[in-house]
């Protein structure tokens, strides 16, 4: 089967949900952020600080292009949809699931989190980023899951039944 790529804003649950879906379907789990960290041997905040966001985005595209097209569940970085090239690649090669979560829920989840460089900025900038990105996630999604109060296991079940219908 086609690999499943989870897309969505920071904190929408891509890593948490992706690991659980992979376990349930007995597929390999991959995370583009972790792949970049393994390859570059630095964590993401350090890459942003020392090399800048532009270089990070280049690494992200290179990692994206090496992901397996079959039999994996992949959590992507929140900004993977920023480049048109990446959106095209995602829609052409994967079953893309958008975890659509409200800004308020994300704020509650990431309150006090310092591991995400683009979350460590003024509220207005984060809200703007959230609004700007939404149509880009929608553009490349095969399946949109509107997450409100569902638990992790409920979201996992929704994805698994969505996949069985394709
Ligand atoms: N459905 C859910 N209900 C409650 N909490 C959740 C749910 N999904 C994820 N979380 C929690 O939200 C936080 C962020 O989740 P996670 O790190 O998986 O998001 P992410 O989309 O991978 O973020 P990023 O793109 O920034 O790496 C975690 O603390 C996780 O436990
Ligand atoms: O939303 C973003 O642009 C990012 C999200 C994280 O997953 C990381 O990929 C990085 O912190 C950038």
TrEMBL record:
<feature type="binding site">
    <location>
        <position position="116"/>
    </location>
    <ligand>
        <name>ATP</name>
    </ligand>
</feature>
<comment type="similarity">
    <text>Belongs to the shikimate kinase family.</text>
</comment>
<keyword id="KW-0963">Cytoplasm</keyword>
<feature type="binding site">
    <location>
        <position position="78"/>
    </location>
    <ligand>
        <name>substrate</name>
    </ligand>
</feature>
<dbReference type="InterPro" id="IPR023000">
    <property type="entry name" value="Shikimate_kinase_CS"/>
</dbReference>
<keyword id="KW-0808">Transferase</keyword>
<comment type="pathway">
    <text>Metabolic intermediate biosynthesis; chorismate biosynthesis; chorismate from D-erythrose 4-phosphate and phosphoenolpyruvate: step 5/7.</text>
</comment>
<dbReference type="GO" id="GO:0005524">
    <property type="term" value="F:ATP binding"/>
</dbReference>
<keyword id="KW-0479">Metal-binding</keyword>
<dbReference type="Pfam" id="PF01202">
    <property type="entry name" value="SKI"/>
</dbReference>
<feature type="binding site">
    <location>
        <position position="150"/>
    </location>
    <ligand>
        <name>ATP</name>
    </ligand>
</feature>
<dbReference type="GO" id="GO:0000287">
    <property type="term" value="F:magnesium ion binding"/>
</dbReference>
<comment type="function">
    <text>Catalyzes the specific phosphorylation of the 3-hydroxyl group of shikimic acid using ATP as a cosubstrate.</text>
</comment>
<feature type="binding site">
    <location>
        <begin position="11"/>
        <end position="16"/>
    </location>
    <ligand>
        <name>ATP</name>
    </ligand>
</feature>
<dbReference type="GO" id="GO:0009423">
    <property type="term" value="P:chorismate biosynthetic process"/>
</dbReference>
<feature type="binding site">
    <location>
        <position position="15"/>
    </location>
    <ligand>
        <name>Mg(2+)</name>
    </ligand>
</feature>
<dbReference type="GO" id="GO:0005829">
    <property type="term" value="C:cytosol"/>
</dbReference>
<comment type="subunit">
    <text>Monomer.</text>
</comment>
<dbReference type="InterPro" id="IPR031322">
    <property type="entry name" value="Shikimate/glucono_kinase"/>
</dbReference>
<feature type="binding site">
    <location>
        <position position="33"/>
    </location>
    <ligand>
        <name>substrate</name>
    </ligand>
</feature>
<dbReference type="GO" id="GO:0004765">
    <property type="term" value="F:shikimate kinase activity"/>
</dbReference>
<keyword id="KW-0067">ATP-binding</keyword>
<keyword id="KW-0547">Nucleotide-binding</keyword>
<keyword id="KW-0460">Magnesium</keyword>
<dbReference type="InterPro" id="IPR027417">
    <property type="entry name" value="P-loop_NTPase"/>
</dbReference>
<dbReference type="GO" id="GO:0009073">
    <property type="term" value="P:aromatic amino acid family biosynthetic process"/>
</dbReference>
<keyword id="KW-0418">Kinase</keyword>
<dbReference type="InterPro" id="IPR000623">
    <property type="entry name" value="Shikimate_kinase/TSH1"/>
</dbReference>
<keyword id="KW-0057">Aromatic amino acid biosynthesis</keyword>
<dbReference type="GO" id="GO:0008652">
    <property type="term" value="P:amino acid biosynthetic process"/>
</dbReference>
<feature type="binding site">
    <location>
        <position position="57"/>
    </location>
    <ligand>
        <name>substrate</name>
    </ligand>
</feature>
<feature type="binding site">
    <location>
        <position position="133"/>
    </location>
    <ligand>
        <name>substrate</name>
    </ligand>
</feature>
<protein>
    <recommendedName>
        <fullName>Shikimate kinase</fullName>
        <ecNumber>2.7.1.71</ecNumber>
    </recommendedName>
</protein>
<keyword id="KW-0028">Amino-acid biosynthesis</keyword>
């Amino acid at each position: 089967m086609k690999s499943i790529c989870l897309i969505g804003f920071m904190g929408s649950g891509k890593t948490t949900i992706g690991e659980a879906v992979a376990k349930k379907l007995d597929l390999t789990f991959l995370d583009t952020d972790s792949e970049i960290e393994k390859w570059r041997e630095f964590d993401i905040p350090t890459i942003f600080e020392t090399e800048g966001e532009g270089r990070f985005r280049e690494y992200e595209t290179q990692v994206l292009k090496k992901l397996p097209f079959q039999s994996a569940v992949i959590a992507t970085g929140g900004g993977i949809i920023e480049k048109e090239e990446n959106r095209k690649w995602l829609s052409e090669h994967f079953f893309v699931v958008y975890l659509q979560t409200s800004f308020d829920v994300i704020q509650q989840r990431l309150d006090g989190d310092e591991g995400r460089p683009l979350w460590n900025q003024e509220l207005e900038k984060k809200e703007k980023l959230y609004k700007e990105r939404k149509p880009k996630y929608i553009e490349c999604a095969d399946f949109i899951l509107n997450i409100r109060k569902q638990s992790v296991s409920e979201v996992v079940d929704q994805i698994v039944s969505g996949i069985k219908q394709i």
